[in-house]
Design a protein that fits this description.
The structure holds three protein chains of three kinds. Chain A is an all-alpha fold. Chain A is built from 14 helices and three strands. The radius of gyration of chain A is 22 Å and the shape is globular. The two termini of chain A are 24 Å apart. Chain B has a single domain (4-224), classed as Up-down Bundle (Ferritin). Chain C contains two helices and three strands, in the order ββαβα. Chain C has a three-stranded antiparallel β-sheet, with helices on one face. In chain C, β1 (10-16) and β2 form a beta hairpin. The chains are: A mainly alpha, B mainly alpha, C alpha+beta. Chains A and B meet through α3, α4, α7, α12 and α13 of A and α2, α3, α4, α7 and α8 of B.
Chain lengths: 327, 230, 97
C-alpha cells in the first residue's frame, strides 16, 4: 500500500509523535519528514546492496566449507535486508526503480564504509565484528523509529543481523588463535577497518546537519557522538579478548566520564571518501550499474511473459492471484 | 552405518562434487544477479547444494581435505556443473538440465541414503525454479528466446554424462523435453551424445579448462596456510 | 538502463507462521507474475523457517481505509461498549458465563 494525499493534519501528526505511536503510510505527514525518511531509508537500502560486494569478494575463496556457507548466507541476508528496506521506502510513494536509478546516477548515497577494499580473508571478520557492530549500534534504536514500516523492517533486520556480528568475531578469534601469519592477517584487518567503522556514525554532533530535526521527529533516537561512544566502549574489551590491538594510542579509560576516550577522527578522509575519492567508489557503483544493465533483458523477458499469459488465459491468471502454497 | 555403505564411495564422491562445484558457480552470482529477488533465490540454491556437498563428502572423508586439497583430476563431478555461468540463460539451462537429473537420482537413492530424502525436496524446488525461468526466458522476448536457445544448444553435449550408462535417459529426456517445448524452444536433435570428449569425462576425472581456474581460486587461500584452522 | 517494460509490479506478502495461526502481513516485493511472486516470497520471507504457507496479493488490488482520526470508519465502534462482555455485571459466584 502506498501513500495517498490526505488532508493536511499537523495536529494528529504531532499527537502521534508525542504519544510515541507510529506514523503509518496513509497518514498525513510533513513533506520534509517524508523526504528525510526517503533519503535515509534509501541510503540504508543502497548500503545493504552495495555492502554485498566487499564480502562477496571472498565467497569463492573462503578457506573452509563451513565458512563458505556462513558467508553465502550473510551476503544473501544483505540482499534480503535491501529488499525489506526498499519495500519500506516504497510505502512513502517512491518506486524501487526510481531509487535504484538515483543510486546508479549518484543522486543518492550509500554508506562510505563500503568504498574500502577487502584485501584479505581477515577483512571478512573485521567487517562482521566492526562494520556490522557499528551498524547494529545504529540500527537497534531504529526499531523504535516513528515511521511504522521502517521500524518493522528494522525489527526483522536486527533479528537476522545478530548472527552477522558474531560470525565475524568468531572468524577473527580463530585467526587470532591461529598461526603467526593468521594473527598478522587479523591485526592488519583491524588496523584498516577500525577508523572507518568509527566514521560510520557520521560527523560530530556539532556538524551534523540533520540530527536535531531527525531526533525531534523520533526518526533518530540518539546523536552520532552518543552512538559512537557506545560502540567504542563495547569494542575495547572485545578487542582484549581477541588479543588484538585497536590502532589508537589515545584510547584510554576516562574515570570521570565513565567512558573510553579516543583519538581524533580524520574527517578529511571521511569527506574525501564521501565525495567519491575512496579506493573503491568507482568499482562498487560500476559493478552495481553493470549488474542492473545486464539484467535488463531478464526483467523484460519475465514482464513480457506475464503480459502474454494475461492475454492468453485471462481467467486462469485471475485464479492464480489468490492461490495459496505451502512453503 | 550399513545403509550408507550401500551407496558406493565413487557415487558419494560424484554426487558430493556435483553439489560442491555447482554451489560454487551459483555463489559467483552474488552481487551480479539480474534482479535483487534472484540474488536471494540463487543464494538459497547454492546453500542447499553446499549443505548436500558437506554431508556427502563427510561420508567419504574430511570435507575440507576433499574440497581443498585434491587435484583437478581427482574430482568426480560431471562436467556440466563446472561450466562457467555465462549469462542468466546459461545458468538457468544448466540448472534445468542438472536439477532434473539430480532429483531423479536422489529419488532412486532415497531408500539407501538418509540425506537423499531431504535433498529430494530441496532439488525439487531447484527444478521448479529452473522450469519457471526457462518458460519465462524461452517465451519472453525475442532476445531472451535467442539467448536461451543458444544456452540449450551449447550445454546439450554435457548432458550425455547424465544420461549415459547408469544414467536416467528416459525420464530425464521426457521431463527436459516437455519444459523446453512448453517454452517454445527447440530440443536439440537426437539423444544427448555419449561419445564426444566433452561429455562423459567428469566421473573419470577428465574436466574442462575452466575447471582448473575454478579450483585455483577456491583452493588457494586454504593451501597457502598448510595445517591452519579457520 | 531499463525502461518501463522491465518494471515488475509490487506484491504484498502474507505469511502463516504455523498451523493454527492466521496469515499476517510480512512485507512486499516485486515480481512479474503470481507464480514468481510466491517463490520470491518463499525465498525472502521464510529463509529461517518462519512460515508454512504464503499468500501474495497485487498491491494495486488492496483497497484500504484511511487511518485518519476524523475518519468515520472506526469512531462509531468505540462507543458501543455493550458489544464487549465486560459491559455486563454478573453476580459473584455465577460460573461458566
Amino acid at each position: 500500500m502506498t501513500a495517498t494525499d490526505p488532508d493536511p493534519d499537523p495536529d494528529t501528526f504531532e499527537r502521534t509523535l508525542a504519544a510515541d505511536e507510529r506514523v503509518e503510510p496513509r497518514d498525513w505527514m510533513p513533506d520534509a519528514y517524508r523526504a528525510t525518511l526517503v533519503r535515509q531509508i534509501a541510503q540504508h537500502a543502497h548500503s545493504e546492496i552495495i555492502g554485498m560486494q566487499p564480502e562477496a569478494n571472498w565467497i569463492t575463496r573462503a578457506p573452509s566449507l563451513r565458512r563458505k556457507a556462513i558467508l553465502i548466507a550473510k551476503v544473501q541476508d544483505e540482499a534480503g535486508h535491501g529488499l525489506y528496506l526498499y519495500g519500506a521506502a516504497e510505502t512513502l510513494g517512491v518506486a524501487r526503480e526510481e531509487l535504484l536509478d538515483a543510486l546508479h546516477e549518484g543522486r543518492q548515497r550509500y554508506s562510505s564504509i563500503f568504498n574500502y577494499p577487502t584485501l584479505t580473508w581477515a577483512d571478512v571478520g573485521a567487517i562482521g565484528w566492526l562494520v556490522d557492530g557499528a551498524a547494529i549500534t545504529n540500527q537497534v534504536p531504529l526499531c523504535r523509529c516513528s515511521y511504522g514500516p521502517y521500524a518493522r523492517a528494522m525489527v526483522r533486520i536486527c533479528k537476522e543481523e545478530s548472527f552477522h556480528q558474531r560470525q565475524g568475531y568468531e572468524l577473527l578469534l580463530a585467526l587470532a588463535k591461529g598461526t603467526d601469519a593468521q594473527r598478522a592477517m587479523a591485526q592488519d584487518a583491524v588496523d584498516r577497518w577500525w577508523w572507518p567503522s568509527l566514521m560510520m556514525f557520521g560527523p560530530p554532533d556539532a556538524e551534523s546537519p540533520h540530527t536535531r530535526q531527525s531526533m525531534a521527529w523520533k526518526i533518530k533516537r540518539h546523536s552520532n557522538d552518543e552512538l559512537r561512544q557506545r560502540f567504542v566502549d563495547i569494542c575495547v574489551p572485545q578487542a582484549e579478548t581477541l588479543g588484538l590491538t585497536l590502532p589508537d594510542p589515545a584510547l584510554r579509560w576516562n574515570e570521570e566520564r565513565g567512558h573510553f576516550d579516543h583519538g581524533p577522527i580524520d574527517w578529511a578522509e571521511f569527506k574525501a571518501v564521501l565525495r567519491g575519492a575512496g579506493p573503491c567508489n568507482e568499482q562498487r557503483i560500476g559493478q552495481r550499474r553493470r549488474a542492473h544493465a545486464e539484467g535488463a533483458w531478464v526483467r523484460e523477458a519475465a514482464a513480457a511473459y506475464a503480459r502474454k499469459q494475461r492475454d492468453r488465459r485471462p481467467a486462469d491468471a485471475r485464479r492464480e492471484q489468490g492461490r495459496e502454497v505451502a512453503a | 552405518m550399513s545403509r550408507e555403505a550401500a551407496v558406493d564411495r565413487d557415487e558419494l564422491l560424484g554426487l558430493g562434487d556435483d553439489a560442491l562445484i555447482l554451489s560454487h558457480r551459483l555463489a559467483e552470482w552474488a552481487g551480479h544477479a539480474p534482479v535483487l529477488e534472484e540474488e536471494v533465490a540463487l543464494a538459497n540454491i547454492a546453500l542447499d547444494l553446499l549443505g548436500q556437498a558437506r554431508v556427502l563428502l563427510s561420508m567419504v572423508g574430511d570435507e575440507d581435505a576433499l574440497a581443498y586439497r585434491r587435484e583437478e583430476r581427482a574430482f568426480r563431478n560431471v562436467q556440466l556443473v563446472e561450466r562457467p555461468n555465462g549469462d542468466f540463460a546459461h545458468t538457468i539451462v544448466r540448472q534445468l538440465y542438472f536439477s532434473v537429473w539430480q532429483e531423479l537420482r536422489y529419488r532412486q537413492l532415497a531408500p539407501l541414503l538418509p540425506l537423499a530424502a531431504k535433498a529430494v525436496r530441496e532439488t525439487a524446488y531447484h527444478r521448479d525454479h529452473a522450469e519457471h525461468w526457462t518458460l519465462r526466458l524461452g517465451d519472453g522476448t525475442a532476445e531472451s528466446h535467442e539467448r536461451t536457445q543458444r544456452a540449450v544448444d551449447a550445454l546439450w553435449p554435457y548432458t550425455g554424462e547424465l544420461t549415459g550408462p547408469g544414467g536416467l535417459p528416459g525420464e530425464w529426456l521426457a521431463r527436459v523435453t516437455a519444459t523446453l517445448r512448453a517454452a517454445g524452444l527447440t530440443v536439440p536433435a537426437g539423444p544427448p551424445p555419449r561419445t564426444a570428449w566433452a561429455a562423459g569425462g567428469g566421473r573419470q576425472g577428465i574436466h574442462t579448462e575452466p575447471f582448473g581456474r575454478l579450483l585455483a581460486e577456491m583452493q588457494h587461500l586454504h593451501r597457502s596456510h598448510p595445517g591452519a584452522s579457520w | 538502463m531499463s525502461g518501463q517494460d522491465a518494471d515488475w509490479p509490487l506484491w504484498e506478502v502474507f505469511v502463516r507462521g504455523r498451523r493454527g495461526l492466521a496469515h499476517t502481513h510480512a512485507g512486499s516485493l516485486h515480481a512479474p507474475d503470481a507464480e514468481l511472486a510466491l517463490r520470491n516470497a518463499r525465498d525472502l520471507f521464510t529463509r529461517r523457517g518462519e512460515g508454512v504457507s504464503v499468500w501474495v496479493v497485487p498491491a494495486a488490488a488492496i483497497t484500504a481505509s484511511s487511518p485518519d482520526e476524523k475518519d468515520p470508519f472506526f469512531a462509531p465502534a468505540a462507543d458501543k461498549t455493550y458489544r464487549h462482555p465486560t459491559f455486563y455485571t454478573i453476580p459473584d459466584g455465577v460460573r461458566h458465563l
